[in-house]
Design brief:
Layout: E1 6-11, H1 17-28, E2 31-33, H2 36-45, H3 49-55, E3 65-66, E4 80-81, H4 82-100, E5 103-106, H5 110-113, E6 120-126, H6 129-140, H7 144-166, E7 178-181, H8 182-185, H9 187-207
Parallel strand pairs: 1-5, 1-6, 2-5, 6-7
Antiparallel strand pairs: 3-4
Helix pairs in contact: 1-9, 2-4, 6-7
Length: about 210
């Protein structure tokens, strides 16, 4: 981890957060991990990819339990909730990535997982409702009503997931180093600001 710089990006659906993260990584010459975390977690934990994709970033359901060999609880003989298992495996993958390289990590409570690590900048991207609706209508080719339904469902899911595992408020300024309104600033400016923060931290390390 020594010398590595990590940017974690939490985001509202329709805010352009994932696109911002990918552009930041491209500009800085580092990797961006988003959906790739699913495959990495599957390989690490010997999990079924469809099960993992369905469970990630969702609040635990106490009625859904799985007992894979490598995740079995030796003391009780019981398995753990699928969502808990996915969170644990993804968290370990995130820690390994942070130890290995500088990178951008999208979602998955990465800011919390790496809370005790130095060199981590946590960012949350949000946007006005109308801007989110417009973006989703354009990118997903859906109606306004469909976009609104998707936003409400996704916000609830991500909020419950984040607050369940971190004990912090999802999207609140106090939960992150920086919060950016992509509707007001524009995606390019958000990228500029995040890259500037990254480079300033690098300069600070060099001076030390």
């Amino acid at each position: 981890m020594k010398g590595n710089r990590i940017i974690t990006i939490g985001r509202q659906i329709g805010s352009g957060g994932s696109e911002i993260g990918m552009e930041v990584a491209k500009r800085l010459g580092i990797r961006c991990y988003d959906k790739q975390l699913i495959e990495l977690a599957c390989n690490y934990g010997e999990l079924d990819q469809d099960v993992l994709a369905a469970a990630e970033e969702k609040r635990p359901n106490p009625f859904l339990y799985s007992v894979p060999r490598q995740m079995q609880n030796d003391k009780t003989g019981r398995g753990i909730a699928i969502n808990d298992m996915v969170f644990n495996v993804q968290s370990e993958v995130i820690r390994q990535l942070a130890e290995k390289e500088s990178c951008v990590i999208i979602g998955r409570c990465a800011d919390y997982v790496l809370r005790e690590q130095s060199g981590v900048t946590s960012v949350f991207i949000y946007a006005d409702m109308n801007d989110r609706i417009r973006r989703l209508m354009e990118t997903r080719k859906i109606t306004r009503d469909e976009a609104i339904t998707l936003i409400k469902k996704n916000d609830k899911s991500r909020r419950n997931y984040y607050e369940c595992y971190t004990g912090k408020r999802w999207g609140a300024g106090a939960s992150y180093d920086v919060t950016l309104n992509s509707a007001e600033l524009g995606l390019d400016t958000c990228v500029d600001l995040i890259c500037h923060l990254y480079e300033r931290k690098q300069e600070g390390d060099t001076e030390q």
